[in-house]
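Hello Y.,

Per our agreement to keep a running log of every chain we model this quarter, I'm adding this entry. I've kept the format consistent with earlier entries: sequence first, then predicted structure.
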Amino acid sequence: MQTVTNQIKQSMAGSSWIRKMFEKGIELKKQHGADAVCDFSLGNPDVPPPAKTKEVLEAIAAKAIEPLGLGYCPNAGLPPVREAIAGYLAKQQATEVKAGNVIMTVGAAGALVSFFRAVIEPGDEVICPAPYFVEYGSYCGHFGGVLKAIASKPDEGFRPDFDAMAAAVTPKTRAFLINSPNNPTGCIYAEEDLKRLAEIVNNVNADRQAEFGDAARPLYLLSDEPYRAFAYDGAVVPPVMPLTPYAVVLGSFSKTLSLAGERIGYVAIHPEMPDGTTLVNAVTLTNRTLGFVNAPVIGQRLAAQLLDQTVDLEIYDRRRKLMAKVLSDAGVEFVEPKGAFYFFPKAPGGDDLKFVDALQEELILAVPGRGFGMAGHIRLSCSVDEKIIARSAEGFKRAVAKMRG
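Predicted structure for the entry above:
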C-alpha cells in the first residue's frame, strides 16, 4: 500500500544516512555499552547553557502563573523580545534592524520553512553550496521547491564556486541559501566572497526589475546562521545585510545557548528590502498557518535575557584541536574548521561508505558525506566529551590502516 506520498518517500531516503547512523549507535551501545562507543554522528549541543540561565528561568517561572503568563502571543513574537532581538541584530549586522523586521520562529528550521512557504511556488529553485545541511531539500521541497546544490571547492577550504552558482540562476531561482559557519565543513565565508554573491543577487534583481517591473520576483540571499558564535582563532563571520537589501538572516539559540530543545529562532528581513513589509507579514502568516502559531513563549523570554551570553566556547575549541590531532595522527586528510563544531575529512581512498563501515568496526560512528551532498568525505560532530574524542584515536588509526590495505 502507498502509505505516504512519493515526495515524502524521497525525503525519507535523502535523510536516511543520519537516521541510519543514529539507529546503529543505539544498537552498538546496547551490544558494547555506551562508554565503548565513540559517537560523532549527531550535532546535539552538550555543553551546559550559561550559568545565568537558571536565574532567568526562575524569574520567568515566578510570573508564569499570572493570567496569560504562558498563553498565546502575537504570531510574530512578543513585542519586547522582537525589540531586543532587533537591537542584537542591528549590532551584529551593522544595519538598522527594527522590531518590525523580526519574526520569532520555532528554531532556525521553522524560520526557513516559514520563509519558503511565503515565497516558493512549485518549480522554484533554491541554490546552495554543497556540502549542505541535509534538511534544506525538504524545507523548500515541501512547497514544490527544488534545491540545486553546487559543489564547493574542497581544495580551497570548501569555498563556494560562485561562478557556478551564478551560472545556475534561472528565472525560477528564488534564493541563494548559505550557511556560515557551515555545517558540515566548518567553513566561514570570507567577506570578499559574500560581496561577490551579493553582487550577483543585486544584478539579477536589477535585470528582473528592468524586465518585469512591479511583477518581478526577487532573488533573495538567505544566510542561515545558527553557528555564528562558533568562530575560532580570531576568525570573523562577516554580516550579509550591509551587502544587499535582499538579505534575509535566519538564526537560533539552539547552539549558542544550548537551548536546542526549546526551539527558539528568528527571521530578520533587511529593513530596506523592496516591499519588505509585505514579506514580514507573509512570513508571520505562514509561521501561524503552518501550525507553529508562535515561537515558544518561555524560549522567547529566555533568549531575550541571554543575548549577551554564550556557552563556554573554549570547550568546543579544545575539542576541535583534539579532534584535529586525532585525525592528523591517523593520517586522515582534512580542512581545519574555522567555525561550528564539525569536521568533514576525506575518506581514505575516496569511499565514504567503506570508511564509515571501517570506523563502525572500531565502534566509531560517523556520517557519510553523501548524506550532505558530497561523497568521498565523512562528517564528525565534536559535540561530545573530550574523553570520547581521545578514546577514538587508536580506532581511527586502525580504520585508516584497513582502508589502505
